[in-house]
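Its record is set out here:
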Amino acid sequence: MQEHVVQCLSPSGLHQMHYTEWGQRANPRIVICVHGLTRNCRDFDALAQSLETEFRVVCPDVVGRGQSEWLADKQHYGLPQYLADINTLLARLTADAEHATEREILWVGTSMGGMIGMLLASLARTPVRKLVLNDVGTLIPKAALERIGKYVGLSPTFNTLADANAYVRYVSASFGPHTDAQWDHLTRYNAKQNADGTW
């Protein structure tokens, strides 16, 4: 795995979008994996590891998430900005190719990442050849929005990483069964330690 940043543009200025990359850069078959609203690129580590022998796998942190920078103006968080940032990333990924148009872009999107993928795939001259959607469709159930609304925007603090892990397990229970190692991975890349030792 390699980590990179690409500089993107919003109406309020420039910002950096972080992404992980797996596999060979020369591989013309590129899988873009984009996470959900409150997640980050490291959600796809296991999938990327399993695909990297056949594909170049790229997993961005959508702006304001993971290691990507925050926008100067919160009004710009939304699908138009996310599409613009992804377009910049696609330009970066195909810029070194002699025949960039021969690149095959395959999209894996979870929730918000699926929405971004659907919009990108719907555009004229889209580079997306295949689209895999997880936890999103043409209709988002009210119950799902209510569940997300219970924790989005909150910044809970925990005394220990184990307490943070319990919280991640609670709010992410609908993700399905996970091993303890998988829950630990989700927690490790979604929690940050504060100067006072809390999480």
The radius of gyration is 17 Å. The mean pLDDT is 92.
